[in-house]
Amino acid sequence: MRLLGSEGRAHKGGAFPTIASSGTCTNPPRRLEWRQLSKLQKRSYIDAVLCLTRKKAKSGITGALNRFDDHQAVHNSQTPNIHWVGHFILWHRYFVATYEKALREECGYTSGQPYWDWSLDAEPQNLTSTKAFHSAIFNPHDGFGGNGNFVAPTPEKNPLNITGGTGGGCVTNGPFAPPRFMLNFPNHDCLRRDFIPRIMNSFADPKLVQKVLAQKDYTSFARAIENIPSFDEPNIHGSGHFGVGGVLGTIGNAANSPGDPLFFLHHGNLDRILWAWQQKDLKTRLNQVGGPIAPFDYGGKNVTLDFEVNIGNLAGNATLKSLLDTQGGTLCYTY
Ligand SMILES: [Cu+2]
């Protein structure tokens, strides 16, 4: 049942037009878990990602040379405003959907953005287990490649003194190993990963996912998915970021994490969790947002349905209302 009517809103001023959510959505691509893809589908997804690196940038952000860099640069530029806020999960929903659209419209990809359900891989009862890192997603032949070489972090690079890193250097195999795949933003560098089994196994615990799904309203859902910025308490958002990125890995860097193509499968899964939570009471949850406008400002001003997010030059501004429905027109995909 589709519950959103036409919701076109005129945009008053500002650099970017607001997309009216009255747009249509026919034949939404279905997003699948990485393991559900055939070998051929996996190949076509990875080829499309590599294709983005060969298309000219349009973000206008210094250092972004190609369409892959664009997404990383926009996330970087917005980092101070999009985490530990009420719109965290919806901003990232829009961001992943825009990337999916680029893959489909500019690089000939014909399916939905895949996601990585890390809770299928975590072993919360055995924190030293490396099972997750042998998951199909890290396969060097038809996945994203594996860990980086081991590099011991200097104290300056590890101010929180996070232990247990097993990589930190350049990814050594798979389609995103140098020199085939290089980052340009913020500096020319290889893709780095730094697997930390303890974080992966505890943060991707299926019980934590259940806890997030059990939240009663959007505000508490949004807060539960990020929890607190601490390594003493697990949070599912941190699983892909710090389980895979650790201290020195690209996806573990708060601002530049979309430089690891895996980012979009990690956030795809968080988005699927939001979507699954919404399905439990769709009528209410297509019309409910909350949480602070400013990071951690839990007693302050909250976002509303009319609150607008932007992703720079990559797409028009969008209201949170228009981002609640994955098939409302601003967005067009399903799970
Ligand atoms: Cu982010």
From TrEMBL:
Keywords: Copper, Metal-binding. It comes from the Eukaryota. Residues 83-100, 260-271 form the Tyrosinase copper-binding domain. It holds the Pfam family Tyrosinase. One of its GO terms (molecular function) is oxidoreductase activity. Residues 1-27 are annotated as: Disordered. This is Di-copper centre-containing protein.
